[in-house]
Amino acid sequence: MFNFARVMAGVVAGLFVIFGVLRADDREALWQEDLKFLESEFGGHQKDFGKLYPHFHEEMAGLQSDIGKLSDAEIVLRVMKMVASANVGHNIVYLPARKLGFVAIPMMLAWYADGLAVASASPDYASAMGTHVVRIGSMAPEQVLASVAPYISHENDAALRDQSTRYMQMVSVLRQAGAADSNDKVVLTLAKPGGEPFTLSVPAGAAGKRVSMFEGLNIPLPLYRKQPDSFYWYEYLADSQALYIQYNRCKNDPKLAFKEFARNLFAFADSHPVKRVVLDLRLNPGGDSRVIEPLKSGLKARAALRSNVHVLIGPRTFSSAQMAAVAFRHDLHAKLVGEATGEKLNGYGEVRVLTLPNSGLKMQYSTKFFHLGKDDASVLEPDVRASSSLEDALAGRDPVLEAALRP
Fold it and tell me: Which H or E element spans position 350?
C-alpha cells in the first residue's frame, strides 16, 4: 500500500543529507539504519570477508553503541578505519565532499621525493604555492602521515603517500590526527626551497577556487600534465623520435573509441621515424583491462616499435593500469620507468559501489582476487627508478620521462 507520509519523510531525510546534515531528531536512528545496512551488504558481498575482517562485527557493535557521543565526521572516520583495516587498496570509503562535517582547507598538498609541498591554493593563499610543508600544527608531515594512515586503505607506502594528501586537506581528519585546533583552523609552517620558514593560519572552507602552482607561478607545464583529463592522447617528440602515449583511463572515450585511437596512432607511426615508444600510465587508476589490447597487439605486429617500449608507472598506476604494465613487460619486454605502483601484484579487485541510504556515504568493496605476482607480498617495481623533487616540479622538469628518453 502506498504510504505518502513515509515517502515524504524519506524525501525530507534525503534533502538533509544533500546539505550535509542528518535530521537532528532522527539522527541516531538514521545512522543505526545505515550501519546495519553497511554490515549486511559489505559483510555479505565482500570477497573473503571473514578472513579480511575478523573483528568487523565486534567493531561495528562498538560503533553503534557510541553513535550518540560521536559527530557525523567521527562516525565516518570510524567506518573508514574499519574498512581500511584489511589493507585492501580497492576497499575504500569515499571522502564526503562538504558533507557530514568534512570541510577542506583551500589548498592541496602533494608528496615529492624531497617531502610534502603545497601543489595548489586559492588566490588568498598564493604565497603558499610551491612551498615545502615543514609542519602541520605542531606535527612534522611524516607524523601526520602516520596518524592518518589507519583511515586510508592502502597496500604499500607509495599508495599511502599518494592518497594521504586528500585526507590531509580535511580539517576533521587533521583534528583527529592532532594537527588542527578546535576552531577549524590549520596552522601551516611553510618554506620556499632555500628560504626561511613562515606560518599561515588557514581556515576550513575558505572561499576561492584553488589554482595549481603551475598556473599560479607560471611554471612551464611538463608534457604529462598537458591533458590529464583526456582518456588517451599521443604526441610525437621529434628531437628523440619518440612516440609518447598517455593512457589515463582504462575506458573507451565516448568521443573516440580506443581501437580507433590506436588505428590513428599506428597510421601516424607507420609514416614517421619512431625509435622508441613511451606509454605513460602514471595517472591511470584502472578500469577495463581489455581496452588497451589494440595498442599492445599493434606494437607486437611492428618489430621496429616493440623493440624499444618504455612504460612510465607510479603510485597512481592502479588496478587495470597495473595489469597493463605487467602485460607490456611480459609480452613486449617493455622497460618500466618511475616509481612503484600503488598496490600489490596479488590482490582484491572487481569492485562494486555501496551507498548508505540515509547519510549518502559511498564506499566500494571487492568481489574477486587476482594473481599477478609470485607471492602476496610482491609489488610492481620499476626497472629504472626515477622520481620528481619539488625543485624539478618548480622548473617544469619531468625526470621520469627524461629517464625513459635517455639513450
Answer: strand 347-355
